[in-house]
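=== RUN LOG ===
request id: a7f3
mode: sequence -> structure
chains: 1
length: 477
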Amino acid sequence: MSIIEKSDKFHDECGVMAVHGHPEASKLAYLGLYALQHRGQESAGIASSDLGRLHNIKAMGLVADIFTEDVLGRLPGSLAIGHTRYSTTGDSALLNAQPIRVECNKGAIALAHNGNLVNAHLLRRQLEQNGSIFQTTSDTEVVVHLIAQSKEQTLPDAIADALRQIEGAFSLVLMTRDRVFAARDPHGFRPLSMATMPNASGKPTIVFASETCAFDLIGAHYERDVQPGEFVVVGNEGVHSRIFAAPRQQSSCIFEHVYFSRPDSVIFGRPVQESREALGRELAREVPVEADLVVPVPDSGVTAAIGYSNESGIPFSFGLIRNHYVGRTFIEPEQRVRDFGVRLKLNPVQHLLKGKRVVLIDDSIVRGTTSRKIVRMVRDAGATEVHMRISCPPTISPCFYGVDTPSKRHLIAANKSVEQIREYIGADSLAYLSLEGLKRACAEGKKVTYCTACYTGKYPTSLVDVEEIEPAPISLK
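=== RESULT ===
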């Protein structure tokens, strides 16, 4: 068993990728998933089509470890979809790895999904009562059964019928023998973008991905986002769009800009790098402090720390160095090393921190345990003061739309005041960015409106797990 348990961070469920009309579709999907690896490290899979049959390979582990040259050679064809997963619904096991491939009355289908369906349990119960037999514990399989049981005659109509029945967050890609489909839920919770790239056949290759950084790696040109409630069909006849459900109040996940997405991606029409620097500038204006150094908690705090440093005039320094080669299992020394798990990932630069008043910038505090260890490490390295600044508001409620947040009883900000959290983590001061500052930094209202339920407890859908949001005081001592 790994001595590093789930960290004091959020995790998104996955990243998805789709390619239509390229002789090396599976290799492009592989490269896209490589760029999306940060969205999920538990399992990965690619399905391809040679226009005759579907091929599917998936395994536990990282993209580069699974898809060697030989493995990609077993994924022929000009169509491919891919998936990299971090579990939020369903166990972390190979049976839940995606894409899911099935043969049903609508033909051969492969499906990959990013998000979380809040009515999956209800639909699953109904489907099982009607005779469906499930092979996984993932909510994604519900979509496949809804398609198979649809009374619509054509596959596009059956897909649209299925999508109208599911509630929650979904950006999904689906493939048949000769077509690729992409859809996004009516609230637009999760990102999904479309791009094109030239092809020797004369017809452009069409690509879909969770983030635009995947397009940069393969040389694809970003065209647009798949719109909330939109269903895009790509076949030999071209690209066709249809609206399967009327768009609702847009509720795109603001945490994509705070933490999830890579800084070099454009998410919901806005560069993530711009948002994160703006978060840091807002933070410096709202909660300034006298200090000698601005130090990010890498990697998620880096860009906000640059913004904080630029706005405050306090020098920026990499006072914590991250080990990027940390795997999942380690041999722990027999003699207990304090904070060993965190030290495997982060190490303080003592000559930079000694005798300094330090502002630590991070994107969030979830349970508080990791922040406590980091503050202690910085003090042990010789810092005279440690001031913690968080580039988003306190997280007081769990997410039900594809983010692996703990239940409310394990969210420290749901159970303790800011001063109590400060005392627990051992910082000289602690301050969070306001909700208004967060929205300003992410430019809400210009192109998009955001879901901020994790900071407010106000959910954009009526279906949520009530038991998960009931307050339950905890002791973290």
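=== NOTES ===
Residues 1-7, 471-477 have pLDDT under 50 and may be disordered.
DSSP finds 18 helices and 23 strands in the chain.
=== END ===
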